[in-house]
Design goal:
alpha/beta, binds ligand FHN, 456 residues, 27% helix, 19 strands
Length: 456
């Protein structure tokens, strides 16, 4: 049987011209590039994981449940009937959509993506496709997404919806819940898709104004045909809406693994989704917040490699974003007010040697990939005729510019316009950066060059 199939595929390959025939490189898709224009400019977004899991906040029946907060139902194998009772307690009286959007703006974030329905199956919007939603199942009765969409529209903030298309632990035919409903391969998955997931995605794309993107996730059981049904829905209802990289088919951009920052520049549009502590949904015992310096480094590092940073907060059950995460993000926002020119709309580094190098010993990292020894002194971003060197450490000696053919016109500190002397020594251009750094967290030096792009 196997041999017949192999033979058949060889015949088909030969009929199609054979594997040796060089395929022309796929032409860039102009529609996709147009859709991506705002995303490439934005660089930095706010991810929000908010749902019923914010109520137990990592603890079930008095016991801490290890793992990420929004997975508590799965990790503690909470039966649907018990978990769904949380909806009766959902009353986030302090939720203020406009305050959230103002916060994102003050943090310097240029788009928001919120969980419209996570794996637990609970919808944060009024849905006719399932009564398990914030309007019909809770005393709160307010459509959280409607309020947020209104606030975003008022502020000109692009809003995207996370939607767990495959995992739904509340639906008997959704993927993932084997403690109530048995193994996935015994389920009528298409019944769930057609009865809940597809209608809900349609609701999101028809009732909430322009949707910037749909952030699908964990594409279990997503055959190409099933994924195509979602693609068709999005494209037909909102042709400008982006699709992330986790639908189960090629989206508009690549989504990296959670908290994964690639070591090199990526040619396609891409995004790193990341936590600010170790959970997405709120957990009361996770206080290990990233520092403003760490977030700033990661942001500039990602932009210098051509990507976007989608950084998460997990609001508490009362609707408040945990104050320590607010503090961190607002500090970064203040830095961006001064230094945003080096980030928003900036292109990746034309160099690369400042990023680091693969280990010469052939050692592997925890994922089994060749170990990359990253260097963290500075990162480079660009705009036509300009290089932005963001320094994270004070250089001990004058900083050598990576080699390029372009002449340097002048250099200065972005924060205060103070000139930076450029000397040439043995063919190398050296920047005499003043010490201490004007901002010890991250100081941007602008280098104006002859010509729009760097020539090496
Ligand atoms: O299982 C989810 C997880 O809860 C969270 O939503 C992240 C965000 O990228 N995505 C999945 C795991 O990769």
């Amino acid at each position: 049987m196997k041999n017949t199939r192999r033979l058949l595929s060889v015949v088909l390959l030969l009929l199609a011209g054979g594997p040796a025939t060089a395929q022309p490189a796929p032409a860039p898709d102009p529609t996709k590039e147009t859709r991506l224009a705002w995303f490439r400019e934005a660089k930095y977004g706010l991810f929000v994981h908010w749902g019923l899991y914010a109520i137990p906040a990592g603890e079930w029946k008095g016991k801490a449940v290890p793992g990420i907060g929004e997975w508590i139902m799965n990790r503690a194998k909470v039966p649907v009937r018990e978990y769904e009772a949380l909806a009766k307690q959902w009353n986030p009286v302090k939720f203020d959509a406009e305050a959230w959007v103002r916060f994102a703006q003050d943090a310097g974030m240029k788009y928001i993506v919120i969980t419209s329905k996570h794996h637990d199956g609970f919808a944060l919007f009024g849905s006719k496709a399932s009564p398990y939603n914030v309007v019909d199942a809770t005393p709160f009765k307010r459509d959280v997404l409607k309020e947020l969409a209104g606030a975003c529209a008022k502020a000109g903030m692009p809003l995207g919806f996370y939607y767990s298309q495959a995992q739904d632990w509340h639906d008997p035919n959704g993927a993932g819940n084997d403690w109530d409903f048995g193994p996935d391969d015994k389920k009528d998955f298409d019944r769930y898709l057609r009865g809940k997931a597809e209608p809900q995605v349609r609701e999101l794309l028809t009732g909430y104004g322009p949707v910037a993107l749909v952030w699908f996730d964990t594409p279990r059981l997503m055959t190409p045909e099933r994924a195509q049904r979602f693609t068709d829905l999005v494209r037909s209802l909102q042709p400008k809406c982006l699709i992330d990289g986790r639908l189960g088919a090629a989206g508009d951009y690549v989504s990296t693994g959670d908290n994964v920052i690639p070591s090199k520049v990526g040619a396609e549009a891409w995004e790193t989704p990341a936590t600010i502590n170790h959970t997405w949904g709120y957990k009361k015992d996770d206080h290990d917040w990233k520092s403003p310096g760490d977030v700033t480094f990661k942001l500039v590092d990602i932009v210098s490699k051509g990507g976007n940073y989608l950084l998460n907060v997990g609001p508490m059950a009362d609707g408040v974003i945990p104050p320590p995460s607010q503090d961190t993000l607002l500090t970064v926002g203040r830095w961006l007010k001064v230094n945003g020119e080096a980030v928003y709309g900036a292109s990746p580094t034309p160099f690369g040697e400042e990023l680091g190098e693969p280990s010469a010993t052939g050692a592997k990292d925890v994922r089994g990939n060749p170990l990359f020894l990253s260097r963290n002194e500075f990162r480079v971003t660009t705009k036509p005729g300009r290089l932005y060197l963001t320094l994270f450490q004070e250089p001990r000696a004058p900083l050598a510019l990576p080699a390029m053919k372009n002449a340097v016109k002048r250099a200065y500190q972005l924060a205060d316009g103070r000139p930076v002397e450029v000397k040439v020594e043995e063919g190398r251009r050296l920047l005499s950066v003043s010490r201490p750094l004007v901002d010890p967290m991250a100081t941007v030096i602008v280098v104006e060059i002859e010509g729009d792009t760097v020539e090496r």
